Amino acid sequence: MFAVMKDTNYAVKQTFIENFFTDWRKILGKNHIIKKFELCDFTPIYEWHLREKEKKKQMTTEEKKALREEKLKQEEKYMWAVVDGVKEKVGNFRVEPPGLFRGCGEHPKMGKLKRRIQPSDITINIGKGAPVPECPIPGECWKEVKHDNTVTWLAFWNDPISKKDFKYAFLAASSSLKGQSDKEKYEKSRKLKDHIQTIRDNYTKDFISKDVTKRQIAVATYLIDKLALRAGNEKDNGEADTGGCCTLKVDNVTCISPNKLQLDFMGNTVEIEELVCKAIECFHAGKKAGAALFDKLDTTTLDAHLNDLMPGLTAEVFRTYNASITLDGILHEETEDGTLLEKIDVYQRANKEVAIICNHQCCVSKSHDAQMSRVNEKIDKLKGRMDELKVDLSKVMEGRSLGNYKDGKPKRNLAPEIGHLTKSTCRIEKKISTLESKIEKMEIDKKIKEDLKTAALGTSKIKYLDPRITLSWCKRHEVPFEKS
To answer: pTM of the prediction?
Structure first.
């Protein structure tokens, strides 16, 4: 696992190395010959890995197709579930394989071993009377079989790195059950629009409350609203490693007077209300490292308070409201009557702002610079070709010979074709126009790729953006929905 990451930035991070070697030593045992990391040479394994990658690259199209079909055949029975007699597609039916934990930023657990999840770790949820799905590993059995029709998860297991967190398997986003659930969530976020100002006025008033519990609830609600923090420690895939309000420790949070807050798990400093900064400094007072910041608060209390503010209100509804209202506002203000590419650029930038709000970050791909370099080379090549065509156009207009191509072959001499001058110039102008369009598209694609290199757009788009906003914008500005 470590060997195949030899060419990544993680392989040189001390925390990553120490955590990996600590977990590896536990597997090797006390009496194993390997004692020091610096004496280990992972090169032979890494070279084998490169050879295997090269073999896959050299496969023919037919071989790749055969492999895909074989894989699909093996997975077909896991891809579907029957809900109320209707066959529905399952979303994430695969369990994450063993590997080394990476995380985003300087996560203290980076490099730790993510052990293999066994069937005995997994609780499944099926209908009463339904046959229990066959365990895929002979001799193994499921941890537990439940029959709970009040929840939407199909299976869950403990996260191998953070034991208090859980991983779930759900129906696919295209399923009717998920669609119904999403519609209810988006409707709640629309209702929040009618309550949001009252809620904000109320928690602002309680920033200076003498009742410590009330003051902590007010600050926690503010953080949920403005920084998109969670109530507990639940987390989205693709989201930077975060803490929820009720799990924040005093050493997670640093106040920088008069109005800035540094959250160690987000890796950045954000501006907040001065009264919030003062309140958090008070919550810090007299506490040792590792102590709870909101010591008068737990997830149950905070969830109950949110529900009192508006029935069904949760931290997720706040995130959905703020994400959707941000998208709608940016699209309304910045979309102009430009080209399709320009409109798509506006949408992507709006989506990026939403990802920032929701703290959906990703590490820059190790191949990003190389990809950008290749794109620049292609653009330069197209610009060179366009310059050549402009010279040719000038020669044709003047009735001169076009000369030779770079390989020495003569270009077709259009000079004598005076009678066909208009036809010749039109042909060259059309080629120039085509190249200009290609260059414009590549420039915009390059800009989008560079702008979005640290933003994970998928999670916010799937979970927090009301699709009706996107659909309405696409119809209004004649943008194909699949391009958004």
So the answer is: 0.69
